[in-house]
Specification:
The protein is mainly beta. Helices cover 7% and strands 60% of the residues. The chain contains 2 helices and 8 strands. An 8-stranded antiparallel beta barrel has the order 1-2-3-4-5-6-7-8. The protein is elongated, with a radius of gyration of 16 Å. The two termini are 16 Å apart.
């Protein structure tokens, strides 16, 4: 048994997660995360609009997380991210524009001994692209489930 398995009972450096909250809100999102060490990980999320009433049409969000928990890459975390997205213009509802910016978030990851994950994240970012026609800020929210492998 290696040191990672001793700490969590779970082996694996990779995670796949589905954001259930965004799926309910009409913007399904899937995430992949790669564990770098006990306290940090890199990942990215990809989401798309499944409903015409959603302002955001597509988004890609690479992120870095720093974990404070006792388990390997689990517990409370701080997140920094960069997002690129397509969204409906505030000025012309029939026009989709690209936006992008940097954001921060806070959350918690709960890990079972079998490698199942429950995750909560909340944060926001500042849009620096086309911000004359798009909102100055964008949300980063989620309630996700997934699996470490």
């Amino acid at each position: 048994m290696n040191s990672q398995e001793k700490k969590t009972g779970v082996s694996g450096e990779n995670e796949i997660k589905v954001n259930g909250l965004n799926t309910i809100l009409g913007f399904p999102e899937i995430s992949y995360e790669r564990i770098l060490n006990d306290e940090s990980a890199l990942g990215f999320s990809v989401g798309f609009s499944a409903d015409d009433s959603v302002d955001y049409k597509f988004g890609v969000t690479p992120y870095y997380r720093f974990y404070f928990g006792k388990k390997r890459a689990a517990g409370m975390f701080l997140e920094s991210s960069f997002s690129l997205f397509s969204a409906e213009s505030d000025k012309n509802k029939n026009e989709n524009l690209f936006g992008g910016g940097f954001g921060i978030g806070i959350g918690g990851k709960f890990l079972t001994n079998n490698g199942w994950i429950g995750e909560l994240v909340v944060g926001a970012g500042r849009n620096f692209i086309n911000n004359d026609a798009l909102d100055d800020a964008y949300p980063r929210v989620g309630i996700s489930i997934g699996k470490r492998f």
